[in-house]
């Protein structure tokens, strides 16, 4: 019985921490799409806002994981080449 209460309290505290951290995220909301575009300029402005939104949202993700993968592969290659050099000497 006591362990169930502890688990429930842990889950509730975890949910509250996640909600608090989500409130401080720097992700802007997506642009609001009008029901109807009345002019070409309005459509152009909306598409520009969508482009800027995805440029901001996509920036932190792209490239970082690829660079980390490449560096880890290079590190492995260096380690294997160093060990083969040391073994052959």
Automatic annotation (TrEMBL):
SMART domains: PAH. GO terms for molecular function: hormone activity. It is found in: Secreted. InterPro entries: Pancreatic_hormone-like, Pancreatic_hormone-like_CS. Keywords: Membrane, Secreted, Transmembrane, Transmembrane helix. One of its GO terms (cellular component) is extracellular region. It comes from the Eukaryota. The chain crosses the membrane at residues 6-24. Belongs to the NPY family. This is Neuropeptide Y. It comes from Rotaria sordida.
């Amino acid at each position: 019985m006591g362990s169930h209460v502890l688990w429930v309290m842990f889950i509730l505290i975890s949910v509250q921490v996640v909600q608090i951290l989500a409130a401080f995220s720097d992700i802007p909301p997506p642009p609001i799409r009008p029901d109807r575009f009345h002019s070409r300029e309005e459509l152009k402005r909306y598409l520009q806002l969508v482009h800027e939104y995805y440029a901001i949202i996509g920036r932190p993700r792209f490239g970082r994981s690829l660079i980390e993968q490449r560096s880890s592969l290079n590190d492995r290659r260096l380690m294997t080449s160093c060990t083969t050099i040391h073994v052959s000497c």
